[in-house]
Design a protein that fits this description.
Blueprint (H helix, E strand, L loop, with lengths): L1 E7 L6 E5 L4 E4 L5 H11 L6 E5 L5 H4 L2 H8 L3 E3 L1 H9 L12 E3 L6 E3 L2 E7 L8 E7 L2 E6 L7 H7 L4 E5 L4 H6 L4 H8 L7 H11 L6 E5 L8 H14 L9 E4 L9 E3 L1
Helix pairs in contact: 8-9
The protein binds zinc ion (2 copies).
């Protein structure tokens, strides 16, 4: 059975694992190698299960450990050519990915990677390049959209095909506006190349969730401009106003910033 774990989500580090009995794909490597190894050990998952790594974009909270991890365990890393170039130039990535393990994906083209059929798609964000992933395995469709300034028509088509969705609920719009961040940073976060607010996340779910959707995980919550309960309540209220009842139509959970979740069965 396909399974999912989040090891950490937010500006201190992002990393998620999708895995089967034989194969696994790590999405982003923004937490330390030691933390990742410990989490895997705690769950009884051998590191060899991480057959491949997918990267969404080259910001440090998504790539800090990608070079070390890939080198230590000889793991291939997939992303777009631009993201690979960004990782190479990123001084936070001290150990670089070896050339033979750096593999390029093209947006909107599906590639079979081990047991996973992977389609990267364009996501507006102020990194060198940014993609979301639509991943199919064992008849289950999983979609991740994080660090996303706005939900484009293309993103909508992937959300509407997903059984399981990880989507950003970065900030509460009022908290960000009234909060301590300097104006230029507030503008950056609120911009179409920035991050998705709780409100926009809720609206995206109202517009694009279908009967296929079973579970939504809210990811990449801001420590300063959001609270897990507030994110959940805001999204839930927007859904309720449109007649969508959380727990009936689909489940909703907030991913913790620094603590691994349990193991979720995706069937
Ligand atoms: Zn990020
Ligand atoms: Zn980012």
């Amino acid at each position: 059975m396909l399974k999912f774990i989040s090891f950490g989500s937010g500006s201190s580090g992002n990393s998620y694992l999708l895995y089967t009995d034989k194969d696994g794909i790590l999405i982003d490597a923004g937490i330390g190698v030691r933390s990742l190894k410990k989490a895997l050990r705690d769950y009884g998952i051998p590191i060899t299960r991480v057959g491949n790594i997918l990267i969404t974009h080259d910001h440090a909270d998504h790539v800090k450990s990608v070079g070390s991890l890939s080198r230590e365990f000889d793991i291939p890393v997939y992303s777009t050519k631009e993201v690979h170039e960004g990782i190479f130039k990123n001084y936070c990535v001290v150990k670089k990915i070896e050339g033979r393990n750096a593999h390029c994906l093209r947006k909107s083209e599906t590639k079979q990677i081990g047991e996973f059929s992977v389609t990267p798609f364009n996501v507006p964000h102020d990194s060198t390049d940014c993609v979301g992933y639509f991943i199919q395995s064992e008849d289950v469709s999983f979609c991740i959209v994080t660090d996303v300034g706005e939900i484009t028509d293309e993103i909508k088509t992937y959300i509407s095909q997903a059984n399981y969705l990880v989507i950003e609920a970065n900030h509460d719009e009022e908290m960000l506006k009234d909060g301590p961040y300097p104006e230029h940073l507030k503008r950056r976060i609120m911009g179409i190349q920035g991050h998705l607010s709780n409100k926009k996340c809720g609206e995206a779910l109202v517009e694009n969730s279908t009967e296929k959707l079973k579970m939504v995980w809210l990811c990449h919550l801001s420590e300063e401009n959001n609270h897990p309960e507030l994110a959940r309540k805001t999204v839930e209220a927007i859904l309720r106003n449109s007649g969508i009842i959380v727990g009936k139509e689909f489940g909703l959970e907030v991913l913790k910033r620094k603590t691994p979740t349990g193991i979720f069965d995706l069937k």
